[in-house]
Amino acid sequence: MEETPPPGCSKPHLEKLTLGITRILESSPGVTEVTIIEKPPAERHMISSWEQKNNCVLPEDVKNFYLMTNGFHMTWSVKLDEHTIPLGSMAINSIAKLTQLNQSSVYSLPNAPTLADLEDDALEASENQPEKPHFDSRSVIFELDPCNGNGKVCLVYKRGKPALAQDAEIWFLDRALYWHFLTDSFTAYYRLLITHLGLPQWQYAFTSYGISPQAKQWFNMYKPITYNTDLLAEETNCFVNKLDPSKVFKSKNKTLIPKKKGPVQPAGGQKGPSGPPSTSKSSSSPGNPVRK
């Protein structure tokens, strides 16, 4: 039986599960209806049955999570004027809904297209990115979070079946069916989920094209309790004063530089080696005839 605790309710196990994020949200301006749907722990036989059915071994941190709670769902809203808008959502599927991605087909016709038909071997691993998951039998993919329709966070086994725990990674599949690496462990992903407050489209902050302008506005109002080094560098460049005072006030503090005098060529004579131009009697000009 799922139970929604009333606002302000503080339970020790829920406080540990949410890392104290409830108090931070409730103290944020405009935030209301912070709700955690409490779920009972999963039984060990449920985990063992899942592993046998899927021929996969769950990582230890995933097992420990399901032994604490069979799934996770936390939401919060924002009150603008007289309207309450659902905003934040943090979710982890239960062990029963941890289904393989290519098994949930939207087509019911025989010989219908599958995700494996979209496989493109041209996009392989690079120096900065690990090898991307495959939709065919080379990878085993399970859906952890549907992301409210903005994509899917998946538990990916990179070596196929039988899948070992050490081969598991967490990846984000966007709406265009491109893969983006998130973390190499479930614990690290869960911390990202909590520290980003479940803001809309927060997973896109780890893609090359980033979050949408609308989501960026919510990020500016309720910044995640974390930092992105790329965004930090970008903000630093925006706000650092790059003005050079010596250049800004150059017109007020001019330094007088003496001008070099060039050689003077007088009209009526030639310059001597070390004195004024010579005025020899033998020199003549049209306007000054020589008197004998």
UniProtKB/TrEMBL annotation:
In the UniProt record, the gene name given for this protein reads TPGS2
Comp. bias (Low complexity): 277-292
Q: Which residues form a coiled coil?
A: none
SMART domains hit by this protein: SMI1_KNR4 (SM00860)
Q: Which ranges carry the Knr4/Smi1-like domain? A: 41-192
Q: What is this protein called?
A: Tubulin polyglutamylase complex subunit 2 isoform X2
Organism annotation: Odobenus rosmarus divergens (Pacific walrus)
Basic residues bias (residue ranges): 251-262
Q: Which InterPro entries match?
A: Knr4/Smi1-like_dom, Knr4/Smi1-like_sf, TPGS2
What are the boundaries of the region Disordered? 251-292
